[in-house]
Amino acid sequence: MPPVVPNRPVLGDRSLFPDLQAKSYLAHAAISPLSAPVKARVDELTADYARLGVEALPRWLKERARLRELLAAAKTWTDVKDPALAEAGQRARHAMGAAAKWVEVASKQGTDEAEAGARRFALTLGRAAELALLVKHADVALAAGDPAAAVLHYLEAAEWDPVDPRYFTRAGRIELAAGRTAEGIALLTRALELDPGYPMAFAELAAMHLAKGDHAAAERIYRDAADYAPGDPEAQMAHGRILAILGEWESSVMRLRRASELDPGNAGYRLQWAVSLQRLGRHEEALALLLEAETLAPADADIQMAKGDAYRDTGRTQEAVAAYRRFLDLAAADAVMRPVAERLIELLSAKG
Question: The CATH number of 165-263 is which of 1.10.10.60, 2.30.330.10, 3.40.50.10420, 1.25.40.10?
Answer without folding.
Answer: 1.25.40.10
